[in-house]
Amino acid sequence: MTVVVLLADGARPDSLAAALDAGVAPALDRLRREGALTTVTSVFPSVTGPAYTPFLMGRFPGSVGLPGLRWYDRSRADTSFPDWSRSYVGWQVGTVDRDIAPDAPTIWELEPDSLGALNVISRGLPKSRQLTRLTAARMMRAASIHFRGDVRGWLGVDREVGAEVVRHVREQDPKFVFAAFTGIDKTSHAEGHESDAVTEAIAIVDDTAAKLRHDAEASGRWKDMHLWITSDHGHAPVHTHEDLAGIIVEMGHRVIAHPWVVGVAPDVAVMVSGNAMAHLYLEPERRTRPFWPSLTKRWQSFADALLARPSVDLMLVPRSAEECSVRSLRGLATVRVKGDRFSYEPLEGDPLGLGGAQRGLDAEAAHVACAASDYPDSIVQLARLGACSRSGDLVLSAAPGWDFRSKYEPIPHRSAHGALHRDHINVPLLTSRPPARAPRRTTDVFASAIAALGLAAPAILDGVSFL
Q1: Backbone angles phi, psi at 146, to 5 degrees
Q2: In the structure, how many helices (H) and strands (E) does the chain have?
Q3: What are phi and psi of 136, to 5 degrees?
Q4: Which bin fits 23, alpha (ψ -120 to 50), beta or left (φ > 0)?
Q5: CA-based nearest residue to 64, from 79, 40, 43
Q6: How high is the pLDDT of residue 135?
Q7: Widest pairwise Cα distance in the chain
Q8: Residues 6+ apart with CB under 8 A from 382
Q9: Distance CA 168, CA 172 (A)
Q10: Once rounded to an integer, what is the mean pLDDT over residues 387-403?
Q11: Computed from CA positions of residues 319, 323, 327, 332, in that sequence, does the dihedral angle turn out positive or negative?
Q12: Among 323, 283, 325, 275, CA closest to 302
């Protein structure tokens, strides 16, 4: 059996469905008719990089040490002087493999006969099987495309990725393939998720799927192939970019934030992802994580002031490894995790809009409890991110139409992602065969892949096979 996963990075469920309905993606539409097109949830933060962990590790990102696209290292054990921080935008993307939990296996380690393209997480995948490995030349080209804001350049990269994947699958017939196409995300940022450029990017994914199927049918391999198309996050329009770091400076605090992450005795480290979520590390000179009860006296009014801003929708406040508060202008609630059971207890109002308390739920029941809300899978996602030792002392999720970064983006963002909101966390999953059970999360893709390949499941998984 062969499993091929094509990641249409940044694709929304409605955008993909519209392209299929319009006839611009006939190969994918054929898969929809023969298999199924469903909507599943990604993760918080809903941002490229951390949101790849479900596909390649079967885990939520906070659970394996990737709390965001950028994070601050209180421990000083995993990063280096002088900034003690991570940003996977740029050369530090190469540190992902050593940042992820060593006891959580990647699919590359479980299935050696694999191929990857733009996979971000590479631990266990030989360089000879990384089809678009970031050599010096490729890094220079990617940097040039990025910093020139050359959106169409990313479509060229996607075409090259597709051609390489088709050729290697034809010649090598690997058991597992994961290939990411970034054009949908880049064009959505620049022109919006309904733009013609996004349709063109979807057509590139469609062309790749068509060629993979053609070759598999010609060689008699199609009957033994699963072909899945999915995404790591959605997109939503942005009308206002708030300079979160600048706002905190105006509040009287010394701040470090990318790209200027070196400062003298900072009060707050601001780490933005996507750009619709942010980790805030208070008193970052502390070497151990100070949960909220020890910060209240100095920082309560600061937290209140941030929550009052129209840009902030939700505020996650970790109180221990098993408990966090979630705040919004709609109220205050406690989210708890104990073993494999999750609870949501409103204290004032109902900040997540779940209709009241939800107690003692397993992960599947917790997903169902949140499915119809504006915050799908929010109970589990908040609990897992709050428990991550690398997470901030305050975690912000932006209100619709806002993000937290107004500077240093080569492409002006008309659309963004990263938040715990349905437009950001709901993604499509297109399968070439009808699933045996309804898929719920992107982590289910990993669980299903190892089931199809006949591999033993790791001890801990955050997904369930839909086969």
Answers
A1: -65, -55
A2: 15, 20
A3: -60, -40
A4: left
A5: 43
A6: 47
A7: 69
A8: 44, 316, 324, 326, 335, 420
A9: 6
A10: 97
A11: negative
A12: 283
